[in-house]
Amino acid sequence: MDGGIKKWFMLQVWRIQQVAQIITIALLASTTAGILYDYLDTWHTGIFKEAITGIPILLLAIALAIWTFAIIWDLRLKLWRDQMTVLVERNPYTKEKLSSKEVLMFGIMWLPMMEKLSKDDPKLAASAEVIRSWVRKTADEDPETMKHVQELFAHIGKDGMALLELGKK
Q1: Most buried among 10, 65, 80, 108, using CB within 10 Å?
Q2: Does residue 169 fall inside a structural domain?
Q3: Pair (109, 152) in one structural domain
Q4: How many Cβ atoms from other residues are within 10 Å of residue 37's Cβ?
Q5: Where is the domain boundary, 74, 89, 104?
Q6: What DSSP line would sit under the chain, residue for residue?
Q7: Segment 38-80, tens digit of pLDDT
Q8: Is residue 33 within 8 Å of residue 62, measured between CB atoms?
């Protein structure tokens, strides 16, 4: 696997995180139901008389309470918007890195426009060169990102790597 042991390890952490939230909620609800069942002596009548029916009903009630809280968390508090902001900002230690979409957008859209418009504007020409060097540095230092750029071109059905023109102008 490209990227070495660190990338492999982080991939495993990501895979675990994908299921950990659901498993944690299920374990929390089942543990709480099992503990509460013994303390609810007054409910040990009817369907709660037997643990085989009482605990699953408590489990469903706790799961419903957690689900209700999650819906309120989502619809009223809208914390997912802040999560998306964090995803866009990414890790504070990698702010200088460009994503594959950014390389693609800068390389085939913004840089050609800036270069065409900068013929009479030296400040815009300097800005274009800064962006070009940033994209070029990403291309030189991060082959994985460039592989993703190629995958993006393949996704849209074009072989556009030549459009990037990362050589010096």
Answers
A1: 108
A2: no
A3: yes
A4: 18
A5: 89
A6: -TTHHHHHHHHHHHHHHHHHHHHHHHHHHHHHHHHHHHH-GGG-SGGGSSHHHHHHHHHHHHHHHHHHHHHHIIIII-HHHHHHHHHHH--GGGTTPPPHHHHHHIIIIIHHHHHHHGGG-HHHHHHHHHHHHHHHHHHHH-HHHHHHHHHHHHHTT---GGGG--S--
A7: 777 666 677 777 778 878 888 888 888 888 888 887 777 776 6
A8: yes
Q: How much is the pLDDT for 125?
A: 94
The one-letter code for the residue type at 23 is I
Question: What average pLDDT does range 14-32 have in this prediction?
Answer: 83
Residues 73 and 131 in one domain: no
Structural domain contains residue 31: yes
Asked if residue 119 has pLDDT above 80, the reply is yes
Per-residue buried b or exposed e for 46-80, using 16+ beta carbons within 10 Å of the residue's own CB: eebeeeeebbeebbeebbeeeeeeeeeeeeeeeee
Domain that holds residue 120: 96-164
